[in-house]
Design brief:
Helix 3 links the parallel strand 7 and strand 8. The protein is built from twelve helices and 23 strands. Helix 4 packs parallel to helix 5. With 506 residues, the chain is an alpha/beta fold.
């Protein structure tokens, strides 16, 4: 056979092989959660040429060049973080180091750049990131660079802000006003005027102090438009969502939502408080969008990436599908990028997150930081951006399967005259476990009883938790119905993560 004939045969075989394998990648066997398309079922997802090519019950492995088994995992649209910081702000992060490993394929930088600095942002960050980086342009021309600049009304130019947006519509999706420390409405009104000129929404992060000359009620009902966004919704200092004295959601919040103002979590390092969030969610006031306000401080202390904040909202009672809707579809709609983003629809860009829903006992911190324990946590396993795998987690770690959360845990106590030390776990008003090595991380309150004796000697699992801790026969701690009523020696271990001015909440 001639060389030309052999090359022809090889070429034809390559074409036949390509036709037999039309997909670049297939994710097999996962639970596909796609709120936009009403899918919550075991499905295979195929990717070709950077797009979602098929979502079906069974896609043969022979049709893909690469197959990844994701059985037991969640396959969801790439997460969309509406509020992050990757430019200008002193705590800015590198998006590919923080977003991609969290399954976040799109982030919106919230006001780091203004019309004076946006070109630099586009050149130095947006153009070089695997993460899709979009922007809310700050109404302040210099961007988010601290005082006195962020309160400089003369640098808040609606016309130049709108002009910059219109020249960069492919990546600028709105306007941000934040940290304005002067009285009056200049910052918000100029941001809204720029938003009107450019036909984009405004995100507000406002300081509502007693000397501000502003109130939340006026802001939401008189100054913001339908489609504008108030971030930091569960922050008691900036938005007054929950009345401190009644514990009820303020009526003007409900009215603002009714007229179309949107509410965003914007967790951050100072803008998510358990008592506010818990009361609001219990009354049905859930976020329109879930976002991180991720910066250096909140990354290091609260670890508030998208899966972390989503897990917190689940801990407060929201369902996984509802949380996912507010982390994909809703933010994509708010920035005018739906349905290209936020879905696994066939033909859409292949931005995908593969998530593990872990069971165990996990600590979650709010912004003070106060700790709450939960039994479910979301963690990213695999991230696909534009059809390419850009993050893979290492080997799956062994997971703690015990999901018991103790209200009180006595460590290293002796029961009566028994020589060995044991731990005593209490839930509610009952003893639920007596044994060795019970984990302090599984307890809301820990008391170190090493060297002391616990009575009565008839303690048993399932019995009522009425106990005394004795030191040479003298009672130094009394527990009634599972509650510590006296602790003369300070056996309860202080936990700094339980701090916070919570006594002024009803």
């Amino acid at each position: 056979m001639r060389i030309t004939q052999r090359l022809t045969v090889v070429a034809l075989c390559s074409i036949a092989s390509a036709l037999a394998q039309p997909y670049d990648l297939v994710l097999r066997g996962g639970r596909v959660l796609d709120p936009a398309n009403g899918i919550d079922a075991r499905r295979d997802v195929a990717v070709a040429n950077g797009r979602i090519a098929a979502v079906e019950a069974d896609i043969p492995s022979t049709q893909a060049r690469k197959v990844v088994d994701v059985s037991g995992l969640l396959v969801v649209p790439g997460l969309v973080d509406l509020h992050a910081h990757v430019f200008g702000y002193e705590g800015s992060l590198v998006p590919d180091e923080t977003a991609i490993p969290a399954g976040t394929t799109t982030i919106v930088d919230a006001g780091g750049s203004g019309w004076r600095t946006f070109d630099e942002f586009r050149r130095t960050v947006i153009a070089h990131s695997k993460t899709r980086v979009l922007a809310l342009l700050n109404i302040v021309g210099k961007g988010m660079v601290g005082e006195p600049y962020e309160s400089d009304v003369e640098d808040m130019d609606p016309a130049k802000t709108a002009e910059t947006i219109l020249r960069n519509k492919d990546v600028i999706v709105g306007i941000k006003t934040a940290h304005f420390a002067k009285p009056g409405w200049a910052a918000i009104d100029r941001a809204v005027e720029a938003g009107r000129r450019a036909s984009v929404p405004v995100m507000v992060d406002d300081k509502i102090f007693t000397n501000a000359g502003r109130t939340t009620k006026e802001e939401l009902l008189d100054h913001l438009r339908p489609g504008d966004i108030h971030t930091h919704m569960y922050n008691d200092r900036q938005i007054e969502l929950v009345d401190r004295f009644t514990g009820k959601v303020q009526p003007w919040m409900i009215e603002a939502r009714r007229r179309g103002v949107l509410f965003d979590v914007g967790h951050g390092g100072g803008s998510f408080l358990w008592p506010v969030a818990a009361r609001a969610v219990a009354q049905g006031f859930v976020p329109d969008t879930i976002s991180t306000d991720l910066h250096q401080g909140s990354r290091d202390i609260q670890q508030s990436n998208m899966p972390n904040v989503m897990s917190k909202m689940m801990l407060l009672g929201m369902s996984l599908p509802d949380v996912l809707l507010r982390s994909t579809v809703n933010p994509a709609k708010e920035i005018g990028r739906y349905p290209e983003l936020g879905t696994l629809g066939v033909g859409r860009v292949a931005d995908i997150a593969v998530i593990e829903e872990q069971s165990g006992v996990f600590a979650f911190k709010d912004s003070w930081p106060a700790k709450r324990l939960g039994t479910k946590r979301l963690e990213c396993v695999l991230t696909i951006r534009d059809g390419q795998v850009v993050y893979e987690r290492g080997a799956v770690r062994n997971r703690e399967q015990d999901t018991t959360i103790y209200d009180l845990l006595l460590k290293h106590a002796r029961i009566g005259d028994r020589p060995d030390e044991v731990d005593i776990g209490i839930v509610g008003n009952r003893i639920v476990r007596i044994g060795k090595g019970l984990k302090a991380a599984h307890a809301r309150v820990v008391a170190e009883a090493e060297g002391y004796t616990v009575t009565p000697v008839t303690l048993a699992e399932g019995k009522g938790a009425d106990l005394r801790v004795l030191d040479a026969g003298r009672a130094i701690m009394t527990i009634r119905n599972g509650k510590i009523v006296t602790d003369d020696e300070g056996l309860t271990i202080p936990d700094a993560t339980r701090a916070g001015p919570y006594t002024n909440f009803k």
